[in-house]
Amino acid sequence: MRRPVRFGVALLGVVALLASAACSANQPQANDKKTIKIVYQKTDSFTALDKVFQDAKQEFEAANAGVSVDLEPIQANDDDYGTKLALAQRSPDTAPDVFYEDTFKVRSDVDAGYLLKLDALLATWDGWSAFNESAKAAGRGDDGGIYAVPLGTDTRGIWYNKQVLQKAGIPVPWQPKTWDDILTAARKMKAADPSVVPFNMYAGQATGEGTVMQGFYELLYGTASSLYSDSEKKWVVGSQGFTDSLQFLKTLYDEKLAVAPADALDPNVWKKVFGEWLPQGKMGATVEGSYAPSFWQKGGAYEWAGYAQDMGVARFPTQFGQDPGGVSMSGGWTLAVDAKTKNPDLAFKFLTTALSKKNALAFDVNDSQIAVRTDVASDPGYQAANPFVKDVSSLVGVTHYRPATADYPKISLAVQAATEAVITGKESPVEAAAEYDASVKKLVGDAKVVQK
Amino acid sequence: MAAPESLRRRSRLLPVVPSVLLLALFLLGPVLWSFYASFTNAALSGKAALNPQWIGLDNYARMLTDSVFPLSAWLTVVFVAVSAILGQNALGLVIALLMTRSGGATASLVGTAVVSSWVLPEIVAAFAAYAYFSQDGTLNQLLGMLGVRGANWLYAFPMGAVILANVWRGTAFSMLVYRAALSQVPRDISEAALMDGARGWQRLAFITLPIIRGSIATNLMLITLQTLAVFTLIWVMTAGGPSNASTTLPVLAYQEAFKLGDIGYGTAIASVLILLGMVFGAVYVRLLRGAKS
Questions:
Q1: Which residues between 73 and 112 in chain B have a beta carbon less than 8 angstroms from any beta carbon of chain A?
Q2: How far does the signal peptide extend, from start to end residue (chain A) (predicted)?
Q3: What is the pLDDT of residue A28?
Q4: What b/e readout covers A48-87, taking b as 16+ CB neighbours within 10 angstroms?
């Protein structure tokens, strides 16, 4: 009898404590001080945005007395960040006022009612005219309104280690013209030094969007096929290009020209690519984003003084060298205001502070982003940020964007599953493509697919 | 006389009222919500996040055509059967039996070694198991010293690795339960059997095991429910891969609900998991009743 009593008393204590905590949490709202909450991503290797927000917070609080800015970084990878953000947005109690949003989620989150339409507010901001037109489209919803403002964009190309290529007798600067050129060069590197990984492309579900953005789409968009038909607004199934792309991955992995499948299925493989294999000359080339120098430059996660001399960038070629002669993929992140915010004007004002020319320049330089503000792009500080700014910016000419519909994340996972099945040898490219077609039909329905 | 008596009995329940309320609020509430959500197309993003629609049994019908779900359900059953019912349960019993025969020092040494894996928080135990089985991990380094080149265990034998890890982590619980149960077995009965000429294994099978049958059923129920819900261990070690080769139902539910944002389908899988737990629970409760009568 004594035990339950004591237990009950303990519980009462807990309840009382919770109740008092709830009361104290309510107190700040009693007086007139306003708080806006900012949610964004921060990791060990991604602190550029945190720095921008710290600076913007100081500027903003100095300019707006009585308003405090509450920075709430989420420590997670891209996938988990998106999940945590979406969970917070489901309730007005936890929703942020301003948040960091991946461009490919904008449309789907507009449908979900998470994003505030910014057109009226943007009309009052003179900074908006400095954004280039294609970048403005990154935050556009299906209804044509603007819901998010881009921080920067990126492109993807082949990053190669000149020394590894030269050892294999491949002249640098290197520019493969076709898929076969890549295989030929990779085989030469393997022959010259069997211990190097000649040419890496991500594959499998562990690397998530990295698998498709820095891998499969460079292949697929360089064939005559595509993932999605923009004109018909339907997903493409049964295309030769899809099977060919899988076949290319199979060749890379079967001939051990890429990393071992077990490494490819390690979600942290990219850390080894940036931190060990490329700097140590154990990898010939990899398909990666324009942000690659942000890891190697001073203050980056994997500082490497020699990267400017040792590394080179090449366009990823089309399948047979057909026009336009190269492929790149672009994404990028934006800032958006939550539709549930109680202070839309203040939230938007903070957004413009964070995206001012000064702050955008700092972010684009520190994170090796491609500028979306024309005044930043023409700034000498931006152009001198790293030796590759010109190369990766030129890839904008051959770049593609993901079909960012609400169905896209599931389709992307189906693509990742197909690459995983092929590189692990579980299925042939033809079988994996057939399974992809079947999953797409199941995911979006027969009415939203087109056979090509 | 009857009225004060029932009042007294009811007032005895008073101290548990707060815990019952808290359980209802934080355990039953989410379970009921999850059950409700499994009949909708609730999602993390897109139109369905704004206005979830009632879609009846569609999520459950989808399981039948889903290529991953049957595999995942099967892997869950294998995981529970091999790592809990066979592994933890049998190993725990064997260790407990051996400890009753060994000296105090050996017993306490073995007990400490076994229990140390159990007192670790699940995430720490999971990283320890990952560090043991991974490509450059402890196991392969030990094998390397013997001149054997070990496989990449988490990639080549993902289910084997997570099953062993779960046995390593959970055996302590069964061992503790059985140590307590064995200490309750009256010595005079086994001694009588010894006098009748029963061999060791006969005494175990006909005397000891029937006496501790109740404890066996309780233990099986607890470790089964625990193992059904194992998530962190698998997520850290293999994340369900490669190619879903270690995706048990909790991992699948997480992937569908949070990685793909399909809350409706994820909660439907979770509901199936709850039903599975209830079936196991019902079987063990019957066993317990049989043991008592």
A1: none
A2: 1-21
A3: 43
A4: bbeebbebbbebbeeebeebebeeebbeeebeebbbbbbe
3-class DSSP state for residue A132? coil
Closest CA to A302 of A328, A330, A280: A280
Residues of chain A positioned with their CB less than 8 A from the CB of B45? 86, 105, 108-109, 111-112, 114, 406, 409
Closest Cβ–Cβ partner in A83, A113, A205 for B241 = A205
What ipTM, to 2 d.p.?
0.75
Four-residue CA torsion sign, B95, B99, B100, B101: positive
Interchain CB distance below 8 Å, B260 and A90: no
- The least confident of A46-55, B28-37, B283-292 is B283-292
Confidence of residue B128 (pLDDT cuts 50, 70, 90): very high
Q: Are B15 and A86 in contact (CB < 8 Å)?
A: no
Tell me the average pLDDT across B267-278. 92
Neighbour-count burial of A18, counting CB atoms closer than 10 A to its CB (0-12 exposed, 13-18 middle, 19+ buried)? exposed
Residue B16 sits at the chain A interface (C-beta within 8 Å): yes
pLDDT in tens, A340-389: 999 999 999 999 999 999 999 999 888 888 888 988 988 898 888 888 98
Residue A337 tokens read as: 């205001």
Question: Pick the residue with more confidence: A241 or A209?
Answer: A241
Token pair, residue A295, equals: 């890891």
Report the gap between the CA of A90 and the closest CA in chain B (Å).
Answer: 8
What is the spatial distance between Cα B241 and Cα A207, in angstroms, rounded to a whole number? 12
- Tokens representing residue A275 in the block: 């931190």
Q: Which helix (H) or strand (E) holds B283?
A: helix B263-292
Question: In B24-157, which residue ranges form alpha helices assigned H by DSSP?
Answer: 29-37, 47-50, 58-65, 68-78, 89-101, 104-119, 122-133, 138-145, 153-156
Nearest to A12 among B18, B46, B152 (CB): B18
* Model pLDDT, residue B48: 81
- pLDDT at A446 exceeding the cut of 70: yes
